[in-house]
Amino acid sequence: MNNEKSIIYLDNAATSWPKPETAIEAMGDMLRRGCANPGRSGHRLSIDTARAIFRTRKATAGLLGSSDPLRVVFTANTTVGLNMAIAGLVRPGDHVITSSMEHNSVMRPLRAMESAGASITVIPFGKDGVLDPRKVEESIIPATRMIVITHASNVTGAMTPIEELAGIARDRGVIFCLDAAQTAGAVGIDVEKWGIDIVAFAGHKSLYGPQGTGGLYLREGLEEIMTPLLRGGTGSLSEKEDQPLFMPDRFESGTPNSPGIAGLGAGIDFIMKTGIPAIH
């Protein structure tokens, strides 16, 4: 039963499979040609790897509707990105609004922040499986810092009215964080048009990249108020002992998953060539 043609695979909400051959080839090609450490050295292989990562960063930004590739931070998965956003922006005394359909990648970090002094309001989805934006707006109080909502439930597939929710958050001066683990690559997202502040995405689901890839889109200015979850080597300002303030280095500590990011880039190229409407 290990013949690919004999397998019926229905677990794409957890991880998509099979991957495009181009994604597999991109990972193997990087490992074969010389997967050097990007930004840590000035030799050709290091520069080539850095360029490959930037190509994926640019492709990801374009897919999400951002005109600035430097707003994209690569992480190991959506969970890491959500933890970065929640722990980096929510403080004791802050209020956060979320929904009853959230993944534990949202709820567990939020409950941890609640234990540290934040307050949480959980809005129930309706019987039709849809979240009522009016209930979210009614829950906003002066202390509300963030609204964090899933774009689509990994259990029911129910879609959330993101454009309307993002507009409410923008009008009320609240940070809007979107969990797009299930939708990035399968449903169109336009962060600049919709006014979304943060998008956490998975590389290994509808972006057709490998496991161990994902990321975070951050609108301009958030890096000035968001505390890094990790600090360490970035390949820039190595003579400084403080974390860089600029994007994406501020939130990308340690050697990146270069082969995985190359595979993610090829997965996004496949999406752009195929077209999101066709995939959806």
Question: What does this protein structure show overall?
Answer:
The chain is α/β, with parallel strands linked by helices and 280 residues long. It is built from 9 helices and 7 strands; from the N terminus they run H-H-E-H-E-H-E-H-E-H-E-H-E-E-H-H. The chain has helices spanning 21-33, 44-64, 78-89, 104-115, 133-138, 162-172, 191-194, 258-274, 276-279; strands at residues 72-75, 95-99, 119-123, 144-150, 175-179, 198-202, 214-218. Helix 4 (104-115) links the parallel strand 2 and strand 3 (119-123). Helix 1 (21-33) packs antiparallel against helix 8 (258-274), helix 2 packs across helix 8 (258-274) and helix 3 (78-89) packs parallel to helix 4 (104-115). The model has no long low-confidence stretch (mean pLDDT 95).
Task: Please tag this protein with its features.
about 280 residues; single chain; alpha/beta; 9 helices; globular; seven-stranded mixed beta sheet
How are the SSEs placed, and which strands pair?
Elements: H1 21-33, H2 44-64, E1 72-75, H3 78-89, E2 95-99, H4 104-115, E3 119-123, H5 133-138, E4 144-150, H6 162-172, E5 175-179, H7 191-194, E6 198-202, E7 214-218, H8 258-274, H9 276-279
Parallel strand pairs: 2-3, 2-4, 4-5, 5-6
Antiparallel strand pairs: 1-7, 6-7
Helix pairs in contact: 1-8, 2-8, 3-4
Structural class given helices, strands, pairing?
alpha/beta
Number of helices: 9
Radius of gyration: 19 Å
> Which regions have little confidence, pLDDT < 50, spanning 5+ residues?
none
How would a textbook summarize the main sheet?
7 strands, mixed
Helix content: 25-40%
The ordered string of helix (H) and strand (E) elements is HHEHEHEHEHEHEEHH
Termini Cα gap: 29 Å
Strand content: 5-15%
Rounded mean pLDDT score: 95
Beta strands, count? 7
Label the overall shape: globular
Oligomer: single chain
Strand order of the largest sheet: 1-7-6-5-4-2-3
